[in-house]
Design goal:
By secondary structure, this protein is of the alpha+beta class. The protein is built from twelve helices and eight strands. It has two domains: 4-154, no CATH class; 227-292, no CATH class.
């Protein structure tokens, strides 16, 4: 029987962590929404976190950064138990501690930023002797909260810059920041933002912000704005030339809507349509017919 349990709709994830963080000892907060997630705390400090418990995001970062060799990873996979693969690597002295600490901090901030948008699901909190991904470094919860707030402030402008999850990213000559070399190595002119989120381990929020940083550093370029923009332009052409309207494809979700967080319909309700003028009605109707495929 967990000592704490409830609904994420009634208690935000930040509120749950703040409450548990005041308690002494080691705690494991388990969350269940569209996917399973967890946050581990010890005496008011964050030990580990994952916005998707089925994925080894921290291990992915280490592999992509070239911090782990094939032999070391294979041995860690064989010996890993409840503590996880990265803990097995640490116990085998396969990772430089000075390298692990800042990378772990980036991972935790990104994971907590993703969890901050959860509005649906349940949570339980209980004391635990062993927690996943305890790699021997902890960060005060207050510091993590400040870093998460700063990351979320950068996230929406970054999402607007990239344009959408279906945007394809291409590499561009430039000096790549050291902490983004692994992510940059995945950019090949074919992978979309959504695929880079899936592959990188940087998290839903962190990947978007990091890709925008690469664009700002002239190391990457968003080369396609997504199928929605193309379909809209084709619909405008069909209205001009009276051609058959394009078939509507499923609209890619905007990057500012995180799975497990605020529903897309809530975002659309916050932005009511501006009424069209009467003399624009016929042209507007023709364009919308093309866009909507009606």
């Amino acid at each position: 029987m967990p000592l704490l349990a409830g609904s994420v709709h009634a208690f935000r994830v930040q509120e749950v962590l703040s409450l548990v963080g005041r308690k002494p000892g080691q705690w494991l907060v388990r969350l269940q929404g569209e996917q399973a997630a967890f946050v581990a705390l010890r005496d008011g400090a964050v030990v580990s976190a994952s916005a998707d418990g089925s994925r080894q995001c921290l291990a992915r970062r280490l592999v992509l950064e070239g911090a782990v060799g094939t032999t070391s990873l294979a041995e860690a996979l064989r010996s890993a138990q409840d503590g996880g693969v990265v803990k097995a690597l640490v116990q085998a002295d396969a990772i430089d501690p000075d390298y692990l600490r800042p990378l772990t901090r980036l991972h935790l901030v990104s994971a907590l930023a993703g969890l901050s948008h959860w509005r649906k699901g349940t949570f339980t909190a209980d004391e635990a002797d062993v927690v996943p991904d305890d790699v021997g470094v902890v960060f005060p919860l207050a510091e993590m909260a400040a870093d998460v707030t700063a990351l979320l402030k950068r996230w929406r402008p970054a999402a607007d810059l990239l344009g959408g999850s279906s945007t394809v990213m291409a590499a561009h000559p430039g000096a790549v920041p050291a902490h983004l070399r692994g992510l940059h190595s995945l950019i090949d002119g074919r992978r979309t933002v959504a695929e880079l989120i899936e592959a990188s381990g940087h998290g839903t929020v962190g990947t978007v912000v990091d890709l925008a940083d690469l664009v700002d550093a002239d190391c990457a370029i968003p080369v396609i704005a997504g199928s929605g923009a193309v379909e809209h332009r084709l619909a405008m052409l069909s209205a001009i030339e009276d051609a058959p309207a394009p078939t509507k494809r499923p609209q890619a979700p905007h990057l500012a809507v995180i799975p497990g967080g605020t529903a897309a319909e809530e975002v659309s309700e916050a932005a009511p349509e501006t009424p069209a003028r009467d003399d624009d009605q016929d042209l507007l109707t023709a364009i919308l017919r093309g866009v909507r495929g009606v």
